[in-house]
Design goal:
By secondary structure, this protein is of the alpha+beta class. Helices cover about 25% and strands about 20% of the residues.
């Protein structure tokens, strides 16, 4: 695995990101000390997160959740005149 100085990584970031995306991971070091490892994101890393345990059995919110009761709210604030 390739180790790259932080200054060089800043200078060549675009190229290094492309390499990592193709599966060529590398380590960024500062003063010779390894700091971070850069690896490509795999499809399972980007999967939709599962619901928290206590929310597993809760139903999904309705599709019009952001518009629910808008007539009643507008009436309360006198906006439907």
């Amino acid at each position: 695995m390739q180790t790259i100085n932080i200054h060089e990584a800043k200078t060549h970031l675009s190229r290094l990101v492309e390499q990592a995306a193709k599966g060529e991971s590398f380590v960024i070091a500062k003063a010779g000390k390894p700091m971070v490892k850069v690896v490509a994101i795999t499809p399972e890393d980007t999967a939709e997160p599962s619901r928290l345990g206590f929310m597993m059995d809760m139903p999904e919110p309705p599709a019009d959740f952001d518009r629910m009761f808008e007539d009643e709210i507008a009436e309360m604030f006198g906006m439907n005149e």
